[in-house]
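Hey,
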Amino acid sequence: MTEFNVSSALSTTFYLTGIPGHETLHHWISIPFCMLYLVGIVGNCIILHIVRTDPSLHEPMYYFLAMLSLTDMGMSLPTLVSLFRVLWSISREIEFNTCVMQMFFIHTFSFTESAVLLAMAFDRYVAICHPLRYSSILTPQRIAKIGAAAFLRSALCMIPLLARLPYFPFCRSHVLSHSYCLHQDMIRLACADIKFNVIYGLVLITVLWGFDSLGILVSYIFILRSVLTIASREERLKALNTCASHICAVLILYVPMIGLSIVHRFANHASPLVHILMAHIYLLVPPVLNPIIYSVKTKQIRRGVIRLLAPKKIHSVLG
C-alpha cells in the first residue's frame, strides 16, 4: 500500500492558479510581472558582474552582497516558467516531482537569504566594532564557508518536510492557490495526517528565522553601542550610513515573509487575492528592490553601475 501511495503521488498532476476572477486579463497582468522579473534579473546580474570585475570590491561586504544577489535570484527564478505558463494560458498543469523541486528551491533560498542577512549583519559588526581585525576575521575562505553553511543549513532542514510528501495521498482537489508550489499550499490538499509537517514547518520557521533575526538584532545593539562612543557626529552618521542598505534588505525580506506565514496559517477565509498578492510580494520584492537600494545607497556600487551603463564622458562628469 505504501509503494502504491508513493507511485500514485509521484504521478499526480496539480493545477496552478493565476489571478482568480481575472482570467481574461492574464495576458495584461503578465506585463508588470515581466517587468519585475526583468528588473530583478538584470539588477542582480549587474551587481554580480560589478563585484566580480572590480578588484576594489573584492572585500567581505561586497562578497556578501553578491551572495544576497544569488539567493534573490535563486528564490524568484524557479517561479518564472510556471507563472508565465499560467498567465499566457499555455498550461496550468505541473507534475508532482516538478512541484516538489520548485518548492525546495523557493523555501531553501528563502531560508538561505535570511542566513546571508545575518552574515551581513556580522560583517557590519566586525567592520564598525573591530575595524583593525576586519580583514583577518573575514577572510575569503571563511566567507566561502559561511555561504556554504547558510545554503546547506537551509537545504538539509527542508529534506524532512519534502521527503514525506510522496507518501501522502491527494484525494481532494489538486488545485493549488498560486502559480507556483509552496509547501504550506500543497499539504492542505493531502488526505492524511499532516500534523508532523505543520508542526515541523512552524518550528523550522521559528528556529531559523528566530535565530537569524535575533543575531541581526544583537549585532545592531553592539554596533549602536560602539557608534555612540564616537565623538564626531559626522563619523557617527557615516558609520550608521554603511548599515542603512542592510537594514532595508532585512525589512524587505522579513516583513513579506512574516505576512505570508500569518496569512497562510491564520487567514484561511481571506480572499484568495490576499494570499496571491502576499506570495508575489514575498518572492518578487526582494530581488527587485535590493539591487536598487544597494546601487543608490552604496557609493562603490553606484560608481560601478555608472561605469558599466554610462559612456565614459558621463562617468567622468559624475565622478
